[in-house]
Specification:
two-stranded antiparallel ribbon, Nucleoside Triphosphate Pyrophosphohydrolase, single chain, 2 domains, seven-stranded mixed β-sheet
Length: 234
C-alpha cells in the first residue's frame, strides 16, 4: 500500500498538461439559432471567433470552472451547463498541449442579458460561421450535433417559446436548431399524436400572417410519459 509521501512523489512525476474549459452557449432569437462568441486575443488567430474559455484553477472541478467562466465573461449565473465532450489532440493549441472540456447550453437570448460585453462578445448565427480560432469550428460542429440530438429527446425547444405559442412558432424553433425544412402537415400531426400540447382556445394577435391557434406545453403529461418517450425523430 502506497503511503501519502510516496503518493505525492508519484504524482509529481506525472506530465503537466494544461486543462481548460470552453463554454458553447446557444441562443434562439429572430427565428435563428445563435452562439455566443468573442474574438481571439492571440496574434495567430487575430480577428477570428472563439468560445468563452479559461484554465481550470487548482482548487476547481470542471463544473465549477465552467460556471465561473460564464459568470466572469457574461455576468450570467443562472444558466444550466452540460458537459459535452473533451478535446485533446496534441496540436489543437499553438502554444503546446492543451486539453479542454466543453460545456454547452441552450437558452432564450431575450431572457438572458449580457451584463459584461468584453472582447466584442456577441451572438452569431450558427449557420453563417465558416472559420474559427483553434479547433473551435470542430467544437461547434460537435456541440451543434449534441444540441440537435438533445432537442429531439427532451422538450428543450419549449423553453425558447412564450408560455402560449403557435405551431408555426414551434416549427420555426425546430427548423432553426435542426437546420432543415419540415413538412408543415407532418410536423403538426406528429405533435398532435404525442399529446403534450394543450389547446388554449385562443388565437395569435398582432401578426402579419394568418393568426394561428395558441397552445401550451403540458409538462405534467410529459413527466408521466417520458420513461417511454424515445425521440421525436424528424
Amino acid at each position: 500500500m502506497i503511503d501519502e509521501k510516496d503518493a505525492i512523489a508519484l504524482v509529481s512525476k506525472y506530465p503537466t498538461v494544461p486543462l481548460t474549459v470552453d463554454c458553447v452557449i446557444f441562443g434562439f432569437d429572430e427565428n435563428s439559432l445563435k452562439v455566443l462568441l468573442i474574438k481571439s486575443d492571440l496574434a495567430q488567430f487575430q480577428g477570428k471567433l472563439s468560445f468563452l474559455g479559461d484554465n481550470v484553477h487548482v482548487h476547481e472541478d470542471l463544473d465549477t470552472a465552467a460556471n465561473r467562466v460564464l459568470k466572469e465573461r457574461t455576468g450570467m449565473n443562472d444558466v444550466f451547463l452540460e458537459q459535452v465532450h473533451t478535446f485533446s489532440k496534441p496540436d489543437r493549441h499553438p502554444a503546446g498541449r492543451v486539453v479542454t472540456t466543453v460545456y454547452a447550453s441552450l437558452l432564450n437570448s431575450k431572457h438572458h442579458e449580457l451584463i459584461i460585453q468584453d472582447n466584442e462578445l456577441k451572438w452569431h448565427v450558427v449557420n453563417q460561421i465558416s472559420e474559427m480560432a483553434f479547433d473551435h469550428q470542430q467544437i461547434l460542429e460537435v456541440c451543434t450535433k449534441w444540441l440537435q440530438k438533445k432537442v429531439q429527446e427532451q422538450p428543450l425547444a419549449f423553453n425558447l417559446l412564450p408560455t402560449k405559442f403557435s405551431l408555426r412558432a414551434l416549427q420555426n424553433v425546430y427548423e432553426a436548431i435542426l437546420d432543415i425544412k419540415l413538412d408543415r402537415r407532418n410536423f403538426r400531426k406528429k405533435f398532435a399524436s404525442m399529446g403534450f400540447l394543450n389547446d388554449t382556445n385562443e388565437m395569435e394577435t398582432h401578426v402579419t400572417h394568418r393568426p394561428g391557434k395558441l397552445y401550451t406545453f403540458d409538462f405534467e403529461q410529459y413527466q408521466q410519459k417520458k420513461k417511454h418517450f424515445i425521440s421525436i425523430d424528424f
